[in-house]
Design goal:
Structural class of chain A: alpha+beta
Radius of gyration of chain A: 12 Å
Largest sheet of chain B: 8 strands, mixed
Order of helices and strands of chain A: EHEEHEH
CATH architecture of chain A: 2-Layer Sandwich
Strand content of chain A: 25-35%
CATH superfamily of the largest domain in chain B: Phosphoenolpyruvate-binding domains
Helix content of chain B: 40-55%
Number of strands of chain A: 4
Number of domains of chain A: 1
Shape of chain A: globular
Strand content of chain B: 5-15%
CATH superfamily of chain A: HPr-like
Strand order of the largest sheet of chain B: 1-8-7-3-4-5-6-2
CATH topology of the largest domain in chain B: TIM Barrel
Shape of chain B: globular
Radius of gyration of chain B: 29 Å
Number of helices of chain B: 23
CATH topology of chain A: Histidine-containing Protein, Chain: A
Oligomer: heterodimer
CATH class of chain A: Alpha Beta
Distance between the termini of chain B: 36 Å
Number of helices of chain A: 3
Structural class of chain B: alpha/beta
Distance between the termini of chain A: 32 Å
CATH architecture of the largest domain in chain B: Alpha-Beta Barrel
Chain lengths: 92, 574
């Protein structure tokens, strides 16, 4: 199992388009992908392969989310997800 | 007559009879299924998903034809929702584990997601649940083999009244005789509101219980500009709104006819009218206004919301796009005016005692401190300048030394590019923004180094009157008609003209219908206006007399306060 905390890079937050890019990326891997965020002091965990789940986090620009990947290809999956954040979800 | 205030979702006025749609009550009952039927039930659910995918394909074709590619992305979102494990996996699991019918499993799953979304504070994210309902409803209607009622059935022109409208309902309105719509639910940023705006259908949303109060056939006025509706309006209100509606339509036509018309005052003086550009996604809209050039290309958007400064190539691409769109017309690119509080994101060290960012390290001050940023931007602009009329403008200049330092960096950029074999347009002018009172008062000295001047009125007024516009306790003191503003502007124009340099005003004053004429009367050479106000300001210029305004402005500048200034200027229109 691998964990990583990342800050949301798209300007409008993790809205429909970046969320769907996230899902497209995470769905290419076997590993289980979970995304969590602290909301009102409570940790909310959603499935990283679910667009609705990701949007439920209402993660705004700059907010931190924790990514947890678990499975045979977890390392590659996390690397691709990190790349997505680094490239700001291809927003330009 | 009852007036209800809601949220203005899409502008325009509609007057007519109401057509109230009853909320579609889909009653889902819980039916237990025997273990041997589970597979069959899951299969039935998958069948409904496939049918809904086909629906989406049809809707996509419709949207593409009617509204274009940008809006068709909404359908992609709906497809993703439809294949979301929160629906596909969760419903199948519920069917298998709880041994319930697909309809019940689906409505339970939807309700669970809805409850989670309802808790979200951020309206933008919360409103996205309507897309979920839209998809969910389609799925349910396929499972229950119900025809989903479409609103395109409305025949006589009417104002649609509903508890809620889903994006797909809204799309169907185009084919019907709907004059506008009002809903109890919804916010300004919902897909329904955005679609209404691009379909040019007036709409008011968020009216709480309007759909209960309004019956089909009730007389209704919908004011999409103010965000209100009037039920059973008085004859006077109807007359007033009919007139407003016709006036608005006429006004829009009159303004539209001004595209490409010369910006000449009534007494025949040409006024140069340019546009402010905030990013290259606006190029098409701005070019359609046929301006005399771009008086201010704000490049901040390239630098914001990111963790490192934009690379030279990325910048060149943006400047080149603008230069090509306005080939042969002046294009004034301002180096990024970034304030002290925003630098952290660019990976620069930040000052810890930036208590007053408006008086802090911003604009040219920041870019001279980190001159590599300035040089990169100069290089990018020079590479895009080609043979066009590209000019560079420096923001927040206070001293002659700042311009000299910037020029040195500029020369370095020119030399580097030449050494690399890139042809450089040596005629690129370097001008300054005058927005600090000290710069206005010593402009004669600054003009030794600056090729042209553009006045940023927002900051100039803020610094001149010592008013923070964001502070609501003093915001009312921010006043473009303060005689001090007029006197400083007059001083700027006179000083520049004495030295044969031109003055543009690119601040908000140039886009203010009440102030634009005054600037022309002060002798400003060009106005650079926001694209939204461009045609409106052109219309004002075409109606004004320069000779008369000139006299009035001199008289206005001599007044004691802004009320007196306003009275003098108002007398011009009477």
């Amino acid at each position: 199992m691998k964990k990583k905390t990342l800050a949301i890079t798209p300007k409008l937050g993790l809205h429909a388009r970046p969320a769907s890019l996230f899902v497209q990326t995470s769905s290419r891997f076997q590993a289980d992908v979970k995304v969590s965020k602290l909301m009102d002091g409570e940790e909310v965990v959603v499935n990283g392969k679910s667009v609705m789940g990701l949007m439920m986090l209402a993660a705004a620009f700059g907010e931190k989310v924790q990514i947890t990947v678990d499975g045979p290809d977890e390392e590659a999956a996390l690397a691709k997800i990190e790349e997505l954040f680094r490239k700001k979800f291809d927003e330009d | 007559m009852i007036v209800i205030k809601g949220v203005a979702a899409s502008p325009g006025i509609a007057i007519g009879k109401a057509y109230t749609v009853e909320p579609e009550e889909i009653v889902v009952s819980r039916v237990e299924i025997p273990p041997e039927s589970v597979r069959q039930e899951v299969k039935r659910f998958k069948g409904a998903i496939d049918a809904t995918f086909r629906d989406l394909d049809q809707t996509e074709a419709k949207v593409l034809k009617m509204l274009g590619k940008e809006h068709a992305k909404l359908i992609d979102t709906h497809r993703l929702i439809l294949s979301d494990p929160l629906i596909t996996k969760d419903v199948s699991r519920r069917i298998a584990e709880e041994r319930v019918n697909a309809e019940f499993a689906l409505s339970e799953a939807l309700e669970r997601i809805n409850r989670a979304f309802e808790k979200i504070q951020d309206e933008f994210f919360r409103e996205r649940r309507h897309d979920l309902f839209d998809v969910g409803k389609r799925l349910l209607s396929h499972l229950m083999k119900q025809e989903k009622k479409t609103l395109s059935g409305i025949r006589a022109p009417a104002i649609l009244v509903a508890r809620n409208l889903l994006p797909s309902d809204t799309l169907n309105l185009r084919e019907s005789d709907v004059l506008g719509f009002v809903t109890d639910l919804g916010g300004k940023t919902s897909h329904t509101a955005i679609l209404a705006q691009s379909m040019k259908i007036p709409a008011v949303v968020g009216l709480s219980d309007a759909s209960h109060r309004i019956k089909t056939g009730d007389e209704l006025i919908l004011d999409g500009d103010q965000g209100l509706i009037i039920i059973h309006p008085s004859p006077e209100a109807v007359t007033k709104y009919q007139k407003a509606r016709i006036d608005a339509l006429k006004e829009e036509e009159a303004l539209d006819a001004l595209r490409g018309a010369p910006a000449l005052t009534a007494d025949g003086h040409k006024v140069k009218m340019m546009v402010n550009l905030d990013g290259i996604d606006e190029l098409k809209t701005v070019a359609a206004l046929k301006p005399d050039g771009i008086g201010l290309f704000r490049t901040e958007y390239l630098f914001l919301n990111r963790t490192s400064a934009p690379a030279e190539d990325e910048q060149t691409k943006a400047y080149l796009a603008a230069a090509r769109a306005f080939d042969g017309l002046p294009l004034v690119i301002r180096t990024a005016d970034i304030g002290g509080d925003r630098t952290a994101h660019l990976g620069l060290e930040t000052s810890k005692n930036e208590q007053n960012p408006f008086l802090g390290l911003r604009g040219i001050r920041l870019f001279l401190r980190h001159s590599e940023l300035l040089k990169t931007q100069f290089r990018a602009i020079l590479r895009a300048a080609g043979s066009g009329k590209v000019k560079i403008m420096l923001p927040m200049v206070t001293t002659l030394r700042e311009i000299q330092s910037a020029r040195r960096v500029f020369q370095q950029a020119v030399q580097e590019l030449s050494a690399e074999g890139t042809p450089v347009n040596k005629k690129v002018e370097l001008g300054i923004m005058v927005e600090i009172p000290a710069a206005a008062l010593t402009l004669d000295a600054l003009l030794e180094e600056a090729d042209f001047v553009s006045v940023g009125t927002n900051d100039l007024i803020q610094y001149l009157l010592a008013v923070d516009r964001v502070n609501e306790d003093v915001a009312h003191l921010y006043d473009p008609f303060h005689p001090a503003v007029l006197r400083v502007l007059r001083e700027i124009v006179e000083t520049a003209h004495k030295r044969g340099k031109t003055v543009t005003v690119c601040g908000e004053m140039a886009s203010d219908p009440k102030a634009a004429g005054l600037l022309v009367g002060l002798g400003v050479d060009a106005l650079s206006v926001s694209s939204r106000m461009f045609l409106r300001i052109k219309q004002i210029i075409r109606r004004m007399s320069l000779e008369r305004t000139r006299e009035a402005v001199q008289q206005a500048a001599a007044q004691a306060d802004s009320d007196a200034v306003r009275r003098v200027l108002a007398a011009l229109d009477s």
